[in-house]
Amino acid sequence: MTEEAAPAVDLHALIRSRQYRVMLVFAAVIGVFVSFVAWGFLEAVHGIQVWVYQDLPDDLGFDTVPRWWPLPWLALAGLLTALAITRLPGHGGHVPVEGLKAGSITQPSDVPGVLLAALATLGLGLVLGPEAPLIALGMGLALFVVRRVRKDTPPQAQEVLAAAGSFAAISTVFGSPVIGSIVMVEAVGLAGANLTVMLLPGLISAGIGSLVFIGMGEWSGLSMSAWALNPLALPTFARPGWGDFGWTIVLAVATAVGVFVIIEIGHRSKRIVERRPVLLTIAAALVVGGLAIVFSEITDKPVDAVLFSGQDAFGTFMHEGPTLSLSTLALLLICKGVAWGISLGNFRGGPTFPALFLGAAAGLLASHLPGYAETQAVAALMGAACVSMLRLPLSSIVIALLLTSQSGLAVAPLIIVAVVVAYITTMMLSAWRATDEKEEAAPASPAAVSHHPSS
């Protein structure tokens, strides 16, 4: 006997209902609370970075920061992150090598572990960004508020309000509630009626939360530019030509392959570190520090170029980028790429900003190709690197457009082509990897087993 189909939800009646209007009010309140905490979290991360890598060496009497300076702090980051992953609920949050996913809902009890792992990872110099911890914190804090106010809130309403908290939190680093909402919609995979039901509370929460950030920035005098994405100062671009599209297609494929290799480094290092989590997480952090020191020794550039996520270095990097030698840019891509791969597999943070930074570095390197200038190269390869990591095409296009908005909208076709080509390449590589892993995991067939006669 066949089961009866579930009755269709009357979306318009649901939105007009009193319960839904109450939920929107809750979403606004959650947006204020989550945004305030997210602002404090981001300022704490920035404060730790400044104190450890700028103020403390000066206070100790160093004229310049010694090149060995990151090693003890990265070791500490490895220890704290490993303890958060192995000893606290929630395992420190989402594993970034899996991409930017909302995943299962973060419970309030998971928040301390997420905070510890994220503050250690981001504050002490590993190559990850703040967006994934913000998503987790937004969910956990939203559920905390809902359950404190009304313990009998239905599970579906809790999910909607948890998503609204993540909308508010993630919007902080993308500089716009709209862009943050697009990222969340695509990361969660919302569609159909669920999209409308969850999007409205999310937009309310993100929009109200943005007011909190503006107000806190004005009241405290602290600038959001240290941790929020801002448009890059790129030359104005009039219109693309056929040569631009040709180079974009070729380089988008190459970018997808490069990011795939970095993700493989993350997966393989993760499997190694899991054998002895505490000791080997510390060792992984020291390898990241060693890569930064090697880059600094060879190029005489600061170790900061390899460490950290890169979002607060975009302005300086893009200003100096055209003057950097090809060897310096190539070495930066190798050292920061490997450091990012190790960080992806073993620490806690977001993968977006390092992808954008490496895409920009690859774009500066590609701008030396004939007929391919800086603006189109940086714009296209940032989009390609972003989608190769996140696998969120629309979000990658919107983020790349945000970062290149000062150069004009003529780069949009190149960004779209780069994102589509890189996404298809990434899907093909992922399918090949999945098939290869399946074959390795499959037991040997009876026909393949040799039988030796007993003597």
Give an account of the 3D structure.
This protein has 455 residues and is mainly α. The protein is built from 16 helices and no strands. Helix 13 packs antiparallel against helix 14. Residues 1-7 and 444-455 have low confidence and may be disordered.
In short:
This protein has helices at residues 11-16, 18-59, 70-87, 111-123, 131-149, 155-174, 177-188, 192-220, 242-273, 277-299, 314-320, 326-346, 352-366, 374-390, 393-403, 412-441. The chain is an all-alpha fold and 455 residues long. Mean pLDDT is 86; it is low at 1-7 and 444-455.
The number of E-state strands comes to 0
Gap between N and C termini, in Å? 60 Å
Give the proportion of residues in helices: 55-70%
Our Rg estimate from Cα atoms comes to 23 Å
Number of helices: 16
The helix/strand class is mainly alpha
Order of helices and strands: HHHHHHHHHHHHHHHH
List the helices and strands and how they pair.
Elements: H1 11-16, H2 18-59, H3 70-87, H4 111-123, H5 131-149, H6 155-174, H7 177-188, H8 192-220, H9 242-273, H10 277-299, H11 314-320, H12 326-346, H13 352-366, H14 374-390, H15 393-403, H16 412-441
